[in-house]
Amino acid sequence: MGKKVKKEVEPPPKDVFDPLSIESKKAATVVLMLNSPEEEVLAKACDAIYKFASKGDENKVTLLGLGAVEPLFKLVSHEDPLVRRNATMVFGIMASNNDVRKLLRELDVTNSVIARLAPEEDIVVHEFASLCLAHMAVEYTSKVQIFEQGGLEPLIRLLSSPDPDVKKNSVECIYHLVQDFQSRAAVRELNAIPALLELLKSEYPVVQLLALKTFGVISNDRETRIILRENQGLDHLFKILETKEFNDLHVEALAVVANCLEDVDTMQLIQQTGGLKKLLSFAEMSTIPDIQKNAAKAITKAAYDPENRRILHEEEIEKCLVTLLGTDNDGAKAAASQAISAMCESLASKDAFGIQGIPQLVQLLSSENEEVKEGAAIALANLTTASPSNASALDILEEINLSTGRKNNFSEGALEKLLDNNLSQKYSQMGYLSSSNIITDGFYDYGQVKPGVKLLSLEELNLQELNDHRAIILVNAKLPDVAEDKSQDRYDGRTTSSSSSIRKSSKERASSAVVSPVEEKQESSGRSPSSLSKSSTREKGSRKGKGKKEEEKPKDEEELQTISKIQQEVILEKVPWLPPFDSILLDYIMDASKIILPLTTTKEQVVALAQFVADKMGGPIERDKLHEFSWELHISEIEFELKCNVVPIGKIKKGTFYHRALLFKVIADRIGIGCSLVRGEYGRAWNEVKLVDDSPQGITGLLLPPQVYILDLMYQPGCLMKQGSAEADHYQRI
Predict the structure, then answer these.
(1) Beta strands 676-679 and 685-691, pairing class
(2) How far apart (Å, rounded) are the C-alpha atoms in residues 115 and 151?
(3) Which among 201, 554, 556, 654 could bridge 634 via Cys, Cβ 3.0 to 4.6 Å?
(4) Are residues 506 and 540 in the same domain?
């Protein structure tokens, strides 16, 4: 058998280098390899750098210092798919570092990274390119670059990627981009809403969360809310809210619902489908503080619309908010207080909150949390504005402020806000009305009362028997209804409203057979039926020529008059009490407007009004003859004439310090002159005005700070005394 001969191997070509396995334990060496012309070396170098950078932020900084970013930037667009993929992976993780992002912005890498989102690229490239953009979109400059270079469209396309990481990175980047209004509009135009809604069904909570956060931003725009509603977005949101396993998503879902509830159409839709009841029940039953807080915020947003307030009131929102006031979480309490403030625009809600809400809000004024105290104070102020029935919170606040242990800045602030809505009480209790406290019709000066003493209403004071106490000075220049005659000018202190208005209402409601034209004339002339002569009755009968029925007429008239009286009494009970109209005061205001408003400077207006007021109340008085000015007797005569302790200010022709100061403030408020009213001791009161002094001679355009002046209305009407001066002090005190 012959011997085997070994086959000779052909030698390799002389121009090909034997392959080497490249290994290095130094980052600097690997960074140098990024400049290699060989694709295999480049791919391996990028892979090694990726692993190194993944280990922590310090390694990213090391690579940055070694100059790795610039060559990597070139490799992101390399023609070899593997090199391109590995380089993009490095960019994706390194962009999480702030210093790296800064350099990436300077290199303007966004265009190259956006190009990696193209459909033909590998799914891994999509993952890390979108990750890089998500990191970079945190800063405003990069947001603008990504948007302007067309990055939003491919990101929206990738929301439908089969890879969850690509979805997550893409939606995160979109979330950052839509913080800017231009991107929000573009998201609508590019029809991203359906794709974002699909992400709510994802099995990955982080994807759902980012989608909800994105909706939380873009749903601030009404156009987006409409699209969301048309795509059954509310159904998706309520499914999340109804699923207990998704409780980590409930806060964000509520934030989106809150925005949607701003639209009346959405509110009506949610109400019709039972979603609103679910939402309120959800808010009340939840034990998660942030959910309770966001639910209250949702109600606040919705309540700014009048129609929404009506719907919320129908669903008894007040009960839900009162429940939230009793939670253990300060954020929920503050948010509930804000919601109550918003709902207070509805009078029906004000009444509903009154019984249970006010005591709880008053309790919150003692909270240690500043936001809670502020929210409660504002809610109380809104609840009591133009609501006498709710104003009895006032008593509780006074009690708190009288206690050194319970009193705080917010309880004092709440009391002051409430008193600003009841200036009669404020002036009686605090003895001061600022220039922003505008006196309106129905105001009355009772005199000084001690803190904690309840001030009777004007109606109650009006019904009191005549006494020797200080007269209550009434301000009411409100014109009566056109139907009322001017008999009210002859004010009877006991009259509750114009008798003519009662007569008119009785005539409107009774049939023409009950109130005859003759009776109407009798009433308007002020005569009773018995004052008519018999001849006039006979005359009337003979003209009608009714024969035998003429004899029955007096009896019929008597019965009809009895019926009319009963009807008038019934109507009288239903007519609300109105303070008497002061026609003299109205004339004062009109005359003062004509005389004072044409004057060019505030100082001239103040002086002229002071002289006007003094003239109407007895003129100037010499200091040493003040005791001879018998104003007390004059006021007593008015009270006796009216048989009432309430005196309209226009009737006072001899007025002292506090009468004149009040009249000045009343007229000044009506014609736009700013002034305050201060009560002193022993019947003294005065007005303070702020005026800017003239610039010193030779200096033009110099803006001097305003000075406070005390106004003389008694001795030298119109004289302005600087606050704190000896003459001002003499005027203010006996």
Answers:
(1) antiparallel
(2) 9
(3) 654
(4) yes
